[in-house]
Fold:
Amino acid sequence: MQERRRFGWLGSLVLISLFGAAAWLLLSGDAAQVNWQSAAGAASRQPTGAAQLVSVEPFPAMQDGEMCEWIPASGSGNLAASFAPQAASASDEGSDAGVNLAPVRVIRDTYPTYSAIALDLNTNEVLLQDENLFGIKVFNRLDNTPPGAAFSEPKRMLVGNNTRLEFNCGLYVDPKTGDVYSVNNDTTDLTTIFPRGAQGNVKPMRELSTPHGTYGIAVDEGAEEMYLTVEHANSIVVYRKMAEGDEKPLRTIAGGNTQMEDPHGIALDTKNQLIFVANHGNVGGRETLGISSRFDPPSITVYPLKGEGNVAALRIIEGSNTRLNWPAAMFIDEERGELYVANDADDSILVFRTTDSGNASPLRVIRGPKTQLKNPTGVFVDFQNNEVWASNMGNHRATVYDRTANGDAAPKRVIRSAPAEKVAMAIGNPGAVGYDSTREEVLVPN
Structure:
């Protein structure tokens, strides 16, 4: 899973009733035996002498006008199904006693957080990847949430177990057909493709098995090739655009000469035959052998479009002047020779020249309290309407600006999917939970 926090309902499961005895039962020694009821059937487990989870409860019904509650169906074979409502039992002094306890409290974010964005200009729609509730929300391009409104309702949604959408972080819309490509990052190892207009709990029309940890997506429409970044392997895999099933990549870019370091966003300059990759700076990922792990400054690396294997980067944009800080999705404006970067940890959108190299300063920076940018991880440039869009993981909203916006520019429009005062919980993929009794704080490493 990503070293980055990934907002998601899964994170809240780990926090369910951590501090209430009603949520967890501690079993040890020979006094107890636990029967764990899984989605596939019951299986006996012997006591370990340590804490064991013996009950998983569904989330309570949504309140206060929240959009929807996603209730996973059992038997679908994906992550959500494994947390479907089910009971466990424990022996109590030799007699079986049912254990099905409600949590004392639940810490979770029940609103969408938007990891990626794309526009379908043929239908005048904006599509937003909801990585928190595992879905895609579709709005009209000109939607604008009034300041006093709780939120804007999407015109349609893709959500549910059949969609296979989980930790979905990359999004691409075919400019001709409107087909929707969604990259799953952490659990299902799939890229799923839906037809234009798909909605509800529907199956993808195609699925492609991809390496674990895919993140960014870009497509060369002329060559009909699809490019995906792979975080943990520090690589790019290139497939036929219409690839499906277990089809293998046409080629792979990986190796020490590439200087890829935890790659996330990717953009193609087909005019100049170049690939741009945004790197967080983590060297020696979990799937990279023989490389000592370290953290370098974030960077943007550039490669030939048809590069393959351990190809050296042509140029690298890196240094304090760049302002790069967890750069995520990118978008190329070939007409003006500009590269837009969603700069996650800096709450900004950066614009570079596509010819920049080294410690280059951005041409423009959209940043400041008026912008409403908060952890932007998606960016899209609408050349038809001269606008630039951002999807924000930190505040449940998408924001749109003039194409040449600079500085602390207020958005032209905002699509907000939660009350204005709601801040994203920033819980996702927690590996552990701790409690600071002095400060009375919950500590969650993501």
